[in-house]
């Protein structure tokens, strides 16, 4: 099985457009399969970058690289304009967009400032995903759900964007089985990864789906350096700044060291059925981080 390896760009500071173009071109030349972006509106005090806006920018910087959005906080948006955005991006960059959807929740205030009850985020996501799947056909859609009632909504000519569903809860697994083309994991062991993807297949079959979701992926924070100590330092600093939690809470799921070390850590996930990795790399400098991603890809596909 061929595994795709992509990356979220490390912090480029005040890099201008020319520098971003050069970084993307370098990743393209190194054979990296895709770029990855996150999605937040106002995360832990205002951080964020709209996932589909970011994806559109990166798709315009490359003629080949795909962009994976993971995870998009669909519950914060109405699914009809989201469907319009997906249709437009699908037309402008055919076959190069993948949408990962999750409910987030690390910062409940992010939902509150958007006028959404955090307790409703799962139900809103389920309803929105169901509508997205129907809107993708290009046919008129009517729905009487409590969160997004629509009448004769239509997005023409429709779109074909794979959807992965993220989350580790039982509800997220059911959501992936019902609406997803695969499941997107994070902070999980290879054994548990295999268990969850097996559950997704079983639940999808029980729902009567004729195509079993199998485009499973994993998001992985990782550190690169000459040794583990030098690799862990920039990784731990970045994660603690973003998540406002000690690195020890994430450490066992975050490989750090040489590219060979990181590839060895990831190989059991490939054996467990992972088809794509979104690496979130950190190193003493961005060039080392991105070179590490390219080398990990080479090692995993060797």
From TrEMBL:
<keyword id="KW-0560">Oxidoreductase</keyword>
<protein>
    <submittedName>
        <fullName>Alkanesulfonate monooxygenase SsuD/methylene tetrahydromethanopterin reductase-like flavin-dependent oxidoreductase (Luciferase family)</fullName>
    </submittedName>
</protein>
<keyword id="KW-0503">Monooxygenase</keyword>
<dbReference type="GO" id="GO:0016705">
    <property type="term" value="F:oxidoreductase activity, acting on paired donors, with incorporation or reduction of molecular oxygen"/>
</dbReference>
<dbReference type="GO" id="GO:0004497">
    <property type="term" value="F:monooxygenase activity"/>
</dbReference>
<feature type="domain" description="Luciferase-like">
    <location>
        <begin position="13"/>
        <end position="237"/>
    </location>
</feature>
<dbReference type="InterPro" id="IPR011251">
    <property type="entry name" value="Luciferase-like_dom"/>
</dbReference>
<dbReference type="InterPro" id="IPR050564">
    <property type="entry name" value="F420-G6PD/mer"/>
</dbReference>
<dbReference type="InterPro" id="IPR036661">
    <property type="entry name" value="Luciferase-like_sf"/>
</dbReference>
<dbReference type="Pfam" id="PF00296">
    <property type="entry name" value="Bac_luciferase"/>
</dbReference>
């Amino acid at each position: 099985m061929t595994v795709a390896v992509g990356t979220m760009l490390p912090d480029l500071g005040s890099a201008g457009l020319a520098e971003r173009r050069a970084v993307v071109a370098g990743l393209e030349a190194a054979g990296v399969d895709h770029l990855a972006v996150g999605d937040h509106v106002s995360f832990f005090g205002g951080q964020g970058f709209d996932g589909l806006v970011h994806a559109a920018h990166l798709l315009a910087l490359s003629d080949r690289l795909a962009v994976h959005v993971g995870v998009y906080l669909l519950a914060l948006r109405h699914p009809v304009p989201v469907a319009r955005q997906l249709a437009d991006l699908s037309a402008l960059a055919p076959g190069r967009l993948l949408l990962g959807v999750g409910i987030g929740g690390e910062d409940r205030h992010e939902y509150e400032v958007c006028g959404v009850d955090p307790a409703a985020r799962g139900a809103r996501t389920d309803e929105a995903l169901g509508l997205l799947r129907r809107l993708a056909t290009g046919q008129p859609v009517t729905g009487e759900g409590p969160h997004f009632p629509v009448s004769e909504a239509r997005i023409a000519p429709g779109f074909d964007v794979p959807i992965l569903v993220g989350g580790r809860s039982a509800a997220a697994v059911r959501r992936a089985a019902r609406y997803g083309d695969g499941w997107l994991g994070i902070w999980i062991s290879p054994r548990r990864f295999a268990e969850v993807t097996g559950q997704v297949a079983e639940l999808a079959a029980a729902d009567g789906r004729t195509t079993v979701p199998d485009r499973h992926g994993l998001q992985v924070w990782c550190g690169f350096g000459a040794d583990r100590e030098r690799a862990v330092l920039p990784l731990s600093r970045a994660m603690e700044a973003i998540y406002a939690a000690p690195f020890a809470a994430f450490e066992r799921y975050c490989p750090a060291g040489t590219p060979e070390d990181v590839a060895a850590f990831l190989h059991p996930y490939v054996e467990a059925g992972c088809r794509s990795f979104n690496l979130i790399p950190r190193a003493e400098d961005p060039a080392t981080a991105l070179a590490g991603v390219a080398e990990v890809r080479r090692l995993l596909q060797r």
